[in-house]
Amino acid sequence: MDALASSTEELFDRMRRGDHAAFDRLYEAYASKVLAYARTVLRDDGKAADIVQQVFTNVYTARSSFRGENLDAWIFAIARNACLRQKRVDTRSMPLIDPDAIRADDVSMSPIDVEVVRKAVDSLPDDDRVIIRLRYFDDLSYNDISAMLGISLTLTKVRLFRARRRLALVLHPHFKDL
Amino acid sequence: MEAIESLLMDMLDDGPIDASEVEAYVLEHNDRTLVSDMQRMHTMSPLLKQCVLPPRASDVELLKNVHSSVQHSISQHLLFARSLWSGLGVTVGGGLLWLAVSQWSGDTKDTLPPVAPTSITRPLREAPSIEPQTHNTARELRSERSPVTALGEMNFVRDDRELQQERERRTVVAKHATGGDAYRQYRDLFHINLALADTNEAVASLRAAHRWAVRLGDVAAATRCEKELNDLVGSAAR
Predict the structure, then answer these.
(1) Among B50, B63, B66, beta carbon nearest to A114
(2) Position with higher pLDDT, B235 vs B232
(3) ipTM value of the model?
(4) How many CB atoms lie within 10 A of CB B147?
Protein backbone atom coordinates (compact mmCIF):
# COMPACT_ATOMS: atom_id res chain seq x y z
CA MET A 1 0.00 0.00 0.00
CA ASP A 2 2.85 2.40 0.86
CA ALA A 3 4.54 1.83 -2.47
CA LEU A 4 1.23 2.45 -4.21
CA ALA A 5 0.58 5.50 -2.04
CA SER A 6 3.91 7.07 -2.93
CA SER A 7 3.36 6.35 -6.60
CA THR A 8 -0.18 7.73 -6.59
CA GLU A 9 1.01 10.89 -4.87
CA GLU A 10 3.70 11.24 -7.48
CA LEU A 11 1.00 10.78 -10.14
CA PHE A 12 -1.06 13.44 -8.42
CA ASP A 13 1.86 15.86 -8.50
CA ARG A 14 2.32 15.19 -12.21
CA MET A 15 -1.38 15.74 -12.77
CA ARG A 16 -1.15 19.06 -10.95
CA ARG A 17 1.61 20.08 -13.34
CA GLY A 18 -0.75 19.41 -16.26
CA ASP A 19 0.10 15.77 -17.11
CA HIS A 20 -3.25 14.40 -18.23
CA ALA A 21 -1.92 10.84 -18.57
CA ALA A 22 -1.13 10.93 -14.85
CA PHE A 23 -4.76 11.77 -14.15
CA ASP A 24 -5.84 8.74 -16.22
CA ARG A 25 -3.55 6.51 -14.18
CA LEU A 26 -4.92 7.90 -10.94
CA TYR A 27 -8.36 7.10 -12.23
CA GLU A 28 -7.28 3.51 -12.90
CA ALA A 29 -5.84 3.26 -9.39
CA TYR A 30 -8.86 4.56 -7.51
CA ALA A 31 -11.98 4.29 -9.66
CA SER A 32 -12.85 0.68 -8.80
CA LYS A 33 -12.44 1.31 -5.06
CA VAL A 34 -14.55 4.45 -5.22
CA LEU A 35 -17.16 2.54 -7.21
CA ALA A 36 -17.17 -0.28 -4.65
CA TYR A 37 -17.57 2.17 -1.80
CA ALA A 38 -20.34 4.15 -3.51
CA ARG A 39 -22.15 0.99 -4.52
CA THR A 40 -21.98 -0.32 -0.96
CA VAL A 41 -23.23 2.89 0.57
CA LEU A 42 -25.91 3.72 -1.98
CA ARG A 43 -26.90 0.21 -3.10
CA ASP A 44 -27.44 1.51 -6.62
CA ASP A 45 -25.08 0.93 -9.55
CA GLY A 46 -26.22 3.98 -11.54
CA LYS A 47 -25.85 6.36 -8.61
CA ALA A 48 -22.52 4.78 -7.73
CA ALA A 49 -21.26 5.47 -11.26
CA ASP A 50 -22.42 9.09 -10.91
CA ILE A 51 -20.48 9.34 -7.68
CA VAL A 52 -17.32 8.08 -9.40
CA GLN A 53 -17.74 10.77 -12.04
CA GLN A 54 -18.33 13.48 -9.43
CA VAL A 55 -15.35 12.35 -7.37
CA PHE A 56 -12.85 12.40 -10.23
CA THR A 57 -14.15 15.65 -11.65
CA ASN A 58 -13.71 17.12 -8.16
CA VAL A 59 -10.27 15.57 -7.79
CA TYR A 60 -9.22 17.40 -10.94
CA THR A 61 -10.93 20.71 -10.35
CA ALA A 62 -10.00 20.87 -6.65
CA ARG A 63 -6.45 19.57 -7.14
CA SER A 64 -4.92 22.77 -5.85
CA SER A 65 -6.69 22.35 -2.50
CA PHE A 66 -4.87 19.06 -1.72
CA ARG A 67 -2.16 19.81 0.84
CA GLY A 68 -0.13 16.68 0.19
CA GLU A 69 -0.86 14.83 3.45
CA ASN A 70 -2.78 11.70 2.51
CA LEU A 71 -4.09 11.29 -1.00
CA ASP A 72 -6.20 8.21 -0.15
CA ALA A 73 -7.91 10.03 2.70
CA TRP A 74 -8.49 13.10 0.51
CA ILE A 75 -10.00 11.19 -2.41
CA PHE A 76 -12.19 9.02 -0.19
CA ALA A 77 -13.31 12.06 1.78
CA ILE A 78 -14.56 13.50 -1.51
CA ALA A 79 -16.30 10.18 -2.23
CA ARG A 80 -17.79 10.02 1.26
CA ASN A 81 -19.17 13.54 1.05
CA ALA A 82 -20.61 12.89 -2.41
CA CYS A 83 -22.32 9.74 -1.11
CA LEU A 84 -23.69 11.56 1.93
CA ARG A 85 -25.14 14.27 -0.30
CA GLN A 86 -26.71 11.60 -2.50
CA LYS A 87 -28.15 9.80 0.52
CA ARG A 88 -29.69 13.04 1.76
CA VAL A 89 -31.33 13.52 -1.64
CA ASP A 90 -32.54 9.92 -1.58
CA THR A 91 -34.05 10.18 1.89
CA ARG A 92 -35.86 13.36 0.87
CA SER A 93 -37.30 11.82 -2.27
CA MET A 94 -38.04 8.29 -1.02
CA PRO A 95 -40.06 6.99 1.92
CA LEU A 96 -37.91 6.04 4.87
CA ILE A 97 -37.43 2.34 5.43
CA ASP A 98 -38.19 1.34 8.98
CA PRO A 99 -35.07 -0.45 10.21
CA ASP A 100 -37.22 -2.52 12.57
CA ALA A 101 -39.01 -3.96 9.58
CA ILE A 102 -35.85 -5.84 8.66
CA ARG A 103 -35.70 -8.75 11.00
CA ALA A 104 -33.70 -11.88 11.27
CA ASP A 105 -36.76 -13.82 10.11
CA ASP A 106 -36.22 -12.29 6.68
CA VAL A 107 -32.99 -14.18 6.33
CA SER A 108 -33.38 -17.39 4.47
CA MET A 109 -33.70 -20.59 6.51
CA SER A 110 -31.81 -22.59 3.95
CA PRO A 111 -28.56 -24.27 4.96
CA ILE A 112 -25.79 -21.88 5.72
CA ASP A 113 -24.28 -20.46 2.58
CA VAL A 114 -22.72 -17.33 1.23
CA GLU A 115 -25.94 -15.95 -0.18
CA VAL A 116 -27.61 -16.14 3.24
CA VAL A 117 -24.73 -14.27 4.84
CA ARG A 118 -24.93 -11.59 2.17
CA LYS A 119 -28.62 -11.11 2.80
CA ALA A 120 -28.02 -10.96 6.53
CA VAL A 121 -25.35 -8.31 5.98
CA ASP A 122 -27.75 -6.27 3.90
CA SER A 123 -30.25 -6.34 6.72
CA LEU A 124 -27.79 -4.73 9.16
CA PRO A 125 -27.82 -1.03 10.03
CA ASP A 126 -26.03 1.07 7.42
CA ASP A 127 -22.75 1.62 9.27
CA ASP A 128 -22.35 -2.11 9.97
CA ARG A 129 -23.40 -3.12 6.49
CA VAL A 130 -20.98 -0.72 4.79
CA ILE A 131 -17.94 -1.71 6.81
CA ILE A 132 -18.58 -5.44 6.47
CA ARG A 133 -19.20 -5.20 2.75
CA LEU A 134 -16.06 -3.13 2.18
CA ARG A 135 -13.97 -5.60 4.15
CA TYR A 136 -15.43 -8.94 3.13
CA PHE A 137 -17.30 -8.38 -0.12
CA ASP A 138 -14.98 -5.87 -1.78
CA ASP A 139 -11.89 -7.32 -0.08
CA LEU A 140 -10.49 -3.91 0.82
CA SER A 141 -7.69 -3.46 3.35
CA TYR A 142 -8.15 -1.80 6.73
CA ASN A 143 -6.11 1.11 5.41
CA ASP A 144 -8.40 1.60 2.45
CA ILE A 145 -11.49 1.33 4.65
CA SER A 146 -10.14 3.77 7.19
CA ALA A 147 -9.39 6.23 4.37
CA MET A 148 -12.85 5.71 2.86
CA LEU A 149 -14.66 6.17 6.14
CA GLY A 150 -12.35 8.90 7.36
CA ILE A 151 -11.60 7.18 10.65
CA SER A 152 -8.45 5.83 12.30
CA LEU A 153 -7.17 2.33 11.71
CA THR A 154 -7.98 1.25 15.28
CA LEU A 155 -11.52 2.62 15.06
CA THR A 156 -11.94 0.79 11.75
CA LYS A 157 -11.12 -2.50 13.47
CA VAL A 158 -13.35 -1.73 16.43
CA ARG A 159 -16.30 -0.88 14.20
CA LEU A 160 -15.73 -3.96 12.12
CA PHE A 161 -15.55 -6.14 15.21
CA ARG A 162 -18.85 -4.75 16.51
CA ALA A 163 -20.49 -5.12 13.12
CA ARG A 164 -19.39 -8.73 12.94
CA ARG A 165 -20.71 -9.34 16.44
CA ARG A 166 -24.12 -7.98 15.43
CA LEU A 167 -24.05 -10.04 12.26
CA ALA A 168 -23.35 -13.16 14.28
CA LEU A 169 -26.33 -12.32 16.47
CA VAL A 170 -28.56 -11.90 13.42
CA LEU A 171 -27.49 -15.22 12.00
CA HIS A 172 -27.47 -17.12 15.32
CA PRO A 173 -31.19 -18.10 15.52
CA HIS A 174 -31.04 -19.66 12.11
CA PHE A 175 -27.86 -21.58 12.26
CA LYS A 176 -27.14 -24.05 14.96
CA ASP A 177 -23.47 -24.01 14.13
CA LEU A 178 -23.13 -20.37 15.06
CA MET B 1 -12.40 -2.04 25.64
CA GLU B 2 -11.83 -0.59 22.18
CA ALA B 3 -8.22 -1.75 22.29
CA ILE B 4 -9.39 -5.30 23.06
CA GLU B 5 -11.98 -5.18 20.27
CA SER B 6 -9.32 -4.01 17.86
CA LEU B 7 -7.02 -6.82 18.91
CA LEU B 8 -9.84 -9.35 18.64
CA MET B 9 -10.56 -8.12 15.17
CA ASP B 10 -6.92 -8.73 14.22
CA MET B 11 -7.19 -12.19 15.68
CA LEU B 12 -10.36 -12.93 13.77
CA ASP B 13 -9.06 -11.72 10.43
CA ASP B 14 -5.35 -12.21 10.44
CA GLY B 15 -4.45 -13.68 13.81
CA PRO B 16 -4.76 -17.23 15.21
CA ILE B 17 -7.63 -19.06 13.63
CA ASP B 18 -7.69 -21.87 16.12
CA ALA B 19 -10.91 -21.61 18.14
CA SER B 20 -9.25 -22.77 21.32
CA GLU B 21 -6.69 -19.97 21.06
CA VAL B 22 -9.44 -17.40 20.70
CA GLU B 23 -11.30 -18.95 23.61
CA ALA B 24 -8.22 -18.94 25.76
CA TYR B 25 -7.61 -15.29 24.96
CA VAL B 26 -11.17 -14.23 25.72
CA LEU B 27 -11.33 -16.30 28.89
CA GLU B 28 -8.40 -14.36 30.21
CA HIS B 29 -10.68 -11.34 30.07
CA ASN B 30 -13.41 -13.20 32.01
CA ASP B 31 -16.31 -12.23 29.75
CA ARG B 32 -18.56 -15.17 28.93
CA THR B 33 -20.73 -13.24 26.45
CA LEU B 34 -17.67 -12.16 24.59
CA VAL B 35 -16.43 -15.74 24.53
CA SER B 36 -19.62 -17.04 22.96
CA ASP B 37 -19.72 -14.13 20.49
CA MET B 38 -16.12 -14.70 19.52
CA GLN B 39 -16.86 -18.35 18.93
CA ARG B 40 -19.73 -17.47 16.61
CA MET B 41 -17.71 -14.83 14.85
CA HIS B 42 -14.85 -17.21 14.45
CA THR B 43 -17.13 -19.82 12.91
CA MET B 44 -18.46 -17.15 10.56
CA SER B 45 -14.97 -16.14 9.33
CA PRO B 46 -14.57 -18.73 6.55
CA LEU B 47 -18.06 -17.87 5.34
CA LEU B 48 -17.28 -14.19 5.18
CA LYS B 49 -14.08 -14.92 3.28
CA GLN B 50 -16.18 -16.67 0.67
CA CYS B 51 -18.35 -13.58 0.28
CA VAL B 52 -15.75 -11.71 -1.76
CA LEU B 53 -17.41 -10.51 -4.92
CA PRO B 54 -15.38 -11.26 -8.04
CA PRO B 55 -14.67 -8.21 -10.21
CA ARG B 56 -17.60 -7.76 -12.58
CA ALA B 57 -16.84 -7.68 -16.27
CA SER B 58 -19.51 -5.01 -16.63
CA ASP B 59 -17.62 -2.80 -14.14
CA VAL B 60 -14.72 -2.44 -16.56
CA GLU B 61 -17.08 -1.14 -19.22
CA LEU B 62 -18.93 1.03 -16.70
CA LEU B 63 -15.70 2.61 -15.45
CA LYS B 64 -14.56 3.24 -19.02
CA ASN B 65 -17.78 5.11 -19.72
CA VAL B 66 -17.46 7.05 -16.49
CA HIS B 67 -13.87 7.90 -17.44
CA SER B 68 -15.07 9.41 -20.72
CA SER B 69 -17.72 11.39 -18.86
CA VAL B 70 -15.11 12.66 -16.39
CA GLN B 71 -12.88 13.80 -19.24
CA HIS B 72 -15.85 15.54 -20.85
CA SER B 73 -16.75 17.25 -17.55
CA ILE B 74 -13.16 18.38 -17.08
CA SER B 75 -12.89 19.79 -20.59
CA GLN B 76 -16.18 21.65 -20.07
CA HIS B 77 -14.91 22.93 -16.75
CA LEU B 78 -11.69 24.12 -18.37
CA LEU B 79 -13.60 25.78 -21.19
CA PHE B 80 -15.91 27.48 -18.75
CA ALA B 81 -12.99 28.60 -16.58
CA ARG B 82 -11.19 29.96 -19.64
CA SER B 83 -14.29 31.85 -20.81
CA LEU B 84 -14.84 33.15 -17.30
CA TRP B 85 -11.27 34.39 -16.97
CA SER B 86 -11.36 35.87 -20.42
CA GLY B 87 -14.64 37.65 -19.62
CA LEU B 88 -13.28 38.79 -16.30
CA GLY B 89 -10.12 39.95 -18.01
CA VAL B 90 -12.09 42.06 -20.47
CA THR B 91 -14.30 43.44 -17.70
CA VAL B 92 -11.43 44.17 -15.34
CA GLY B 93 -9.26 45.51 -18.16
CA GLY B 94 -12.09 47.72 -19.40
CA GLY B 95 -12.80 48.85 -15.86
CA LEU B 96 -9.17 49.69 -15.25
CA LEU B 97 -8.95 51.53 -18.55
CA TRP B 98 -12.11 53.46 -17.74
CA LEU B 99 -10.77 54.22 -14.27
CA ALA B 100 -7.44 55.36 -15.70
CA VAL B 101 -9.10 57.57 -18.29
CA SER B 102 -11.58 59.05 -15.84
CA GLN B 103 -8.81 59.53 -13.28
CA TRP B 104 -6.63 61.18 -15.87
CA SER B 105 -9.50 63.43 -16.98
CA GLY B 106 -10.25 64.23 -13.36
CA ASP B 107 -6.58 64.93 -12.70
CA THR B 108 -6.37 67.14 -15.74
CA LYS B 109 -9.42 69.03 -14.64
CA ASP B 110 -8.12 69.35 -11.13
CA THR B 111 -4.50 70.10 -11.78
CA LEU B 112 -4.31 72.10 -14.99
CA PRO B 113 -4.96 75.80 -14.54
CA PRO B 114 -7.68 77.24 -16.73
CA VAL B 115 -6.31 78.70 -19.96
CA ALA B 116 -6.59 82.44 -20.01
CA PRO B 117 -8.35 83.67 -23.11
CA THR B 118 -6.00 85.28 -25.58
CA SER B 119 -6.83 87.99 -28.09
CA ILE B 120 -7.50 85.23 -30.61
CA THR B 121 -9.61 82.93 -28.45
CA ARG B 122 -11.57 85.62 -26.59
CA PRO B 123 -14.04 86.38 -29.41
CA LEU B 124 -14.57 82.68 -29.94
CA ARG B 125 -15.17 82.06 -26.24
CA GLU B 126 -17.44 85.03 -25.82
CA ALA B 127 -19.39 84.56 -29.03
CA PRO B 128 -18.79 81.06 -30.28
CA SER B 129 -21.45 81.53 -32.97
CA ILE B 130 -19.55 84.38 -34.54
CA GLU B 131 -18.77 82.16 -37.50
CA PRO B 132 -21.57 81.85 -40.04
CA GLN B 133 -23.58 78.75 -39.24
CA THR B 134 -23.22 77.41 -42.72
CA HIS B 135 -19.53 78.24 -42.99
CA ASN B 136 -17.82 76.86 -39.97
CA THR B 137 -14.43 75.90 -41.27
CA ALA B 138 -12.17 76.87 -44.08
CA ARG B 139 -12.47 73.36 -45.50
CA GLU B 140 -16.30 73.55 -45.51
CA LEU B 141 -16.20 77.02 -46.94
CA ARG B 142 -14.02 75.79 -49.76
CA SER B 143 -16.33 72.93 -50.49
CA GLU B 144 -19.41 75.16 -50.37
CA ARG B 145 -18.16 77.83 -52.68
CA SER B 146 -20.90 79.62 -54.49
CA PRO B 147 -21.15 78.99 -58.21
CA VAL B 148 -20.57 82.73 -58.50
CA THR B 149 -16.92 81.88 -58.91
CA ALA B 150 -17.79 80.99 -62.44
CA LEU B 151 -17.71 84.72 -63.03
CA GLY B 152 -13.99 84.86 -62.40
CA GLU B 153 -11.09 82.60 -63.28
CA MET B 154 -10.19 81.80 -59.73
CA ASN B 155 -8.32 78.55 -59.56
CA PHE B 156 -9.21 76.06 -56.95
CA VAL B 157 -6.60 76.47 -54.30
CA ARG B 158 -6.37 73.75 -51.74
CA ASP B 159 -4.21 75.09 -49.10
CA ASP B 160 -4.63 78.12 -46.83
CA ARG B 161 -1.19 79.37 -47.58
CA GLU B 162 -1.89 79.34 -51.28
CA LEU B 163 -5.24 81.02 -50.57
CA GLN B 164 -3.53 83.80 -48.66
CA GLN B 165 -1.04 84.31 -51.50
CA GLU B 166 -3.93 84.37 -53.92
CA ARG B 167 -5.77 86.91 -51.73
CA GLU B 168 -2.73 89.22 -51.65
CA ARG B 169 -2.34 88.96 -55.40
CA ARG B 170 -6.09 89.56 -56.05
CA THR B 171 -6.21 92.50 -53.60
CA VAL B 172 -3.49 94.27 -55.62
CA VAL B 173 -5.25 93.45 -58.92
CA ALA B 174 -8.68 94.52 -57.58
CA LYS B 175 -7.33 97.93 -56.37
CA HIS B 176 -6.17 98.71 -59.88
CA ALA B 177 -9.13 97.19 -61.71
CA THR B 178 -12.23 99.05 -62.86
CA GLY B 179 -15.76 98.26 -64.10
CA GLY B 180 -16.77 94.68 -64.53
CA ASP B 181 -13.23 93.46 -63.91
CA ALA B 182 -13.15 95.19 -60.50
CA TYR B 183 -16.55 93.62 -59.65
CA ARG B 184 -15.24 90.12 -60.54
CA GLN B 185 -11.97 90.64 -58.63
CA TYR B 186 -13.85 91.67 -55.46
CA ARG B 187 -16.31 88.78 -55.85
CA ASP B 188 -13.34 86.42 -56.04
CA LEU B 189 -11.75 88.10 -53.03
CA PHE B 190 -15.05 87.66 -51.16
CA HIS B 191 -14.91 83.91 -51.80
CA ILE B 192 -11.23 83.70 -50.90
CA ASN B 193 -11.88 85.49 -47.60
CA LEU B 194 -14.78 83.18 -46.85
CA ALA B 195 -12.53 80.23 -47.56
CA LEU B 196 -9.99 81.67 -45.14
CA ALA B 197 -12.80 82.21 -42.60
CA ASP B 198 -11.96 85.89 -42.52
CA THR B 199 -15.48 87.28 -42.14
CA ASN B 200 -14.48 90.93 -41.82
CA GLU B 201 -12.46 90.85 -45.02
CA ALA B 202 -15.21 88.85 -46.74
CA VAL B 203 -17.77 91.54 -45.81
CA ALA B 204 -15.38 94.26 -46.98
CA SER B 205 -14.72 92.61 -50.35
CA LEU B 206 -18.45 91.91 -50.85
CA ARG B 207 -19.28 95.59 -50.15
CA ALA B 208 -16.70 96.60 -52.70
CA ALA B 209 -18.22 94.22 -55.27
CA HIS B 210 -21.67 95.63 -54.44
CA ARG B 211 -20.43 99.21 -55.03
CA TRP B 212 -19.06 98.22 -58.45
CA ALA B 213 -22.34 96.41 -59.33
CA VAL B 214 -24.33 99.55 -58.43
CA ARG B 215 -21.88 101.71 -60.34
CA LEU B 216 -22.23 99.42 -63.39
CA GLY B 217 -26.03 99.48 -63.02
CA ASP B 218 -26.18 95.67 -62.75
CA VAL B 219 -29.30 95.39 -60.55
CA ALA B 220 -29.22 91.62 -60.40
CA ALA B 221 -25.57 91.57 -59.29
CA ALA B 222 -26.21 94.35 -56.77
CA THR B 223 -29.27 92.54 -55.34
CA ARG B 224 -27.32 89.32 -55.07
CA CYS B 225 -24.49 91.10 -53.22
CA GLU B 226 -26.98 92.79 -50.87
CA LYS B 227 -28.63 89.47 -50.07
CA GLU B 228 -25.28 87.79 -49.40
CA LEU B 229 -24.20 90.76 -47.26
CA ASN B 230 -27.37 90.52 -45.20
CA ASP B 231 -26.88 86.78 -44.74
CA LEU B 232 -23.25 87.18 -43.76
CA VAL B 233 -23.72 90.09 -41.38
CA GLY B 234 -26.86 88.55 -39.94
CA SER B 235 -25.16 85.22 -39.22
CA ALA B 236 -22.12 87.01 -37.81
CA ALA B 237 -24.37 89.01 -35.51
CA ARG B 238 -26.16 85.83 -34.37
Answers:
(1) B50
(2) B232
(3) 0.72
(4) 6
